[in-house]
Amino acid sequence: MGSGPGAELGEFMRGDGVEPSLIELLLSVAAAADRIEALVRRATLAHLVGVTGATNVQGEAVHKLDEAANRILVDAVRASGRVAILVSEEMAEPLPLGGGPFALYIDPVDGSSNADVNGSLGSIFSIHAAVPAGLPPAGRAQRGSGYVMYGPGTSLMVTWGRGLHEFALDPDARRFVLARPDLRLPPSGRTYAVNSGRRAYWTAGVRAFVDDLTADDGKRGRPYSLRYSGSLTADLHRILLEGGVYCYPGDAKAADGKLRLLYEASPLAFLAEQGGGRASSGRAPILDIIPRTIHQRVPLYIGSVAEVELAEAYVRQEGAR
Ligand code: AHG
Ligand code: MN
Ligand code: MN
Predict the structure, then answer these.
(1) What is the number of the ligand 1 atom nearest to the C-alpha of 112?
(2) What separation in Å is there between the alpha carbon of 172 and the centre of ligand 1?
């Protein structure tokens, strides 16, 4: 029971020999996600849709759910006593939490504009060993990472460096139970995810890559289908399960794209690699990038090995930047 489908998260981690302090931290994140899920379910009823009127350090409108979820996560991980420093999309500066072996990086609500239209949302987290100024080494040093996807059901995709596991929130028992252990991404897929509305700003390499995926060429499994929801966690969930590629490229308006290295690209890259997939900026594996600032952005191509390598080949043709 302890390690097969149906196992509860803490029980499964203990069975896998995960160190107790990391188990406690992951359980506190899962407990926060359980509370955020309850808020998400009632967002429309509880007047939690819409924006607060504030803008965050990224210059983006703060949604009411962003603020509420950030508070829930901060309180939960503070109470765990396992986090020395917390970096959040919703906080300009790292927050010292008084001690503990870990540094935690969070995107409290991913895809927050979906809150206004009852669309899927997520929470993303990355765990490193504690670092003095909050700036961690390259993502390969992560001690764990994951996301929670609040869709028709709520899934937790998580790794502590020994494979990729999916847990599902039992809505009655309010427990995350093992749904799919040791997930492996298909080596290639049939779908891609990208905001094609930005095509006018794309580089020649990105256009050529998307043209390749959408060519009328049945022999090479083309054209791929486009699936894009506005929530990276929901779009990536499909790709981790069914293969394919999610892209948020750099373009003429935003050279480094939109997504943040420490609490979006890097944790998701760790998950993808643990499942045998790949994640790249187009020029380097995401997990090899040494961060310079806590909120830095990075272009992202993530998913099956075949499609991510193809994206890299097209981006590389553009020459070194
Ligand atoms: P966040 O809500 O945390 O700022 O992240 C939103 C991200 C991601 O979830 C999504 O894939 C992407 O932004 C969508 O951006 P575009 O609307 O530019 O496609
Ligand atoms: Mn996000
Ligand atoms: Mn967010």
Answers:
(1) 2
(2) 30
Tokens 């009655």 appear where? 172
Q: How do residues 246-277 score in pLDDT, each as one tens digit?
A: 999 999 999 999 999 999 999 999 999 999 99
Residue pLDDT, tens place only, 156-202: 999 999 999 999 999 999 999 999 999 999 999 999 999 999 999 99
For ligand 3, the distance from its centroid to the CA atom of residue 283, given in whole angstroms, is 25
Which superfamily does 9-180 belong to?
Answer: Fructose-1,6-Bisphosphatase, subunit A, domain 1 (3.30.540.10)
Amino acid at 120: S
CATH of domain 191-320: 3.40.190.80
> Which atom of ligand 1 is nearest the CA belonging to 235?
11
DSSP 86: E
Rounded Cα–Cα distance for residues 1 and 278 (Å): 32
For residue 169, the SS3 value is strand
Q: What are the boundaries of each domain within the chain?
A: 9-180, 191-320
Give the closest ligand to the alpha carbon of residue 234. 1
Residue 150, both tokens: 């609040």
* Atom of ligand 1 at shortest range from CA of 246: 11
Would you say the pTM of this structure is higher than 0.90?
Answer: yes
